[in-house]
Amino acid sequence: MSNVIETERLILSAPKLSEVPVLFEFLGDNLAMHHTHWDSSIAECRRRIAVHERKRRHDGFAPWTVRDRQTKRVIGWGGLYDDPFDPGWGIELAYYFHPSVWGNGYATELCKAALDVADQHLGAEKVSAFAHPENLASNALLKKMGFEYQRFVVGMHRNLYSRQRRG
């Protein structure tokens, strides 16, 4: 599998620690991330990225830095991962975008690319995802991507979804 994946409008690549300050602009924004975890400091963001990159070396996958293909600007972070901070859920899909690009369909494009990797390259039988009940856009996106609602996870205050392998 390539280290860089290009979609129609996105470039997906392994994050570099030098990108942490620009990733922290939204991963550390508690308003932008109010439906999920947010990093309270650049150090915490750097640690999160570094831990996921160690998992990439072990598992062969982890969240990507997401760039706008036209401008090369970092606009998001996400993809597949086996959460090192909350293990036991198997392969998960997640996506986080800078608020300035919300509503442009980038999450859909990222999800399609990630699910193709899960199906075609990893042979993952199942991919899970979580969405806060009040995050209507994420809940709708997961359903659109073929995920089925499983249950509400009380301790996480999240809806759990799963999708079975395609093709």
Automatic annotation (TrEMBL):
It comes from the Bacteria. Residues 10-167 form the N-acetyltransferase domain. It comes from Puniceibacterium antarcticum. One of its GO terms (molecular function) is acyltransferase activity, transferring groups other than amino-acyl groups. It holds the Pfam family Acetyltransf_3. This is N-acetyltransferase domain-containing protein.
